[in-house]
């Protein structure tokens, strides 16, 4: 695992939050072995060809798992986030993580992508890559 991501996970104050993040990072890395991962805007994020795909962050009361193209996945378990194509799910305990759902969403994150990498260059216009 990326040392920066490990340090991020370990820095969380709650043991439950740490465990949630350790599970998420392992599952994401195992389902997206070809993805680059790093701390981006202070949070763990995985990229395919420079395009952000999935990441997570600590919010006040939970851990948010965010899929940049998640609104296009057609999945009931994910909630719309923001004005673009992102969708999220929030966890307060490790028992809430359904690894089967997570694996399916991660597969879709490879197959369904919007071009966030060039969003600024295109002045806020998203184009579908896959």
List keywords for this structure.
6 strands; globular; six-stranded antiparallel beta sheet; Aspartate Aminotransferase, domain 1; alpha+beta; 130 residues
Structure description:
This is DUF1801 domain-containing protein. InterPro entries: YdhG-like. Residues 18-108 form the YdhG-like domain. The chain is α+β, with helices and mostly antiparallel strands. It has a single domain (3-111), classed as Aspartate Aminotransferase, domain 1 (Alpha-Beta Complex). It is 30% helix and 24% strand. It has helices at residues 3-11, 15-31, 99-111; strands spanning 36-40, 43-48, 51-58, 63-67, 79-80, 87-91. α1 (3-11) packs antiparallel against α2 (15-31).
C-alpha termini separation: 27 Å
In the CATH scheme, the class would be Alpha Beta
Low-confidence segments, given as residue ranges, are: none
Rounded average pLDDT: 94
SSE ordering: HHEEEEEEH
Count up the helices.
3
Give the CA-based shape.
globular
**Main β sheet profile:** 6 strands, antiparallel
Helix residue percentage:
25-40%
Structural class: alpha+beta
Number of strands: 6
The assigned CATH architecture is: Alpha-Beta Complex
- What is the CA-atom radius of gyration, in angstroms? 14 Å
- The total tally of domains equals 1
Q: Which percent range describes the beta-strand content?
A: 15-25%
Which topology does CATH recognise?
Aspartate Aminotransferase, domain 1
Strand order of the largest sheet: 1-2-3-4-6-5
Protein name: DUF1801 domain-containing protein
Organism: Marivirga aurantiaca
Pfam family, one: DUF1801
InterPro entries: YdhG-like
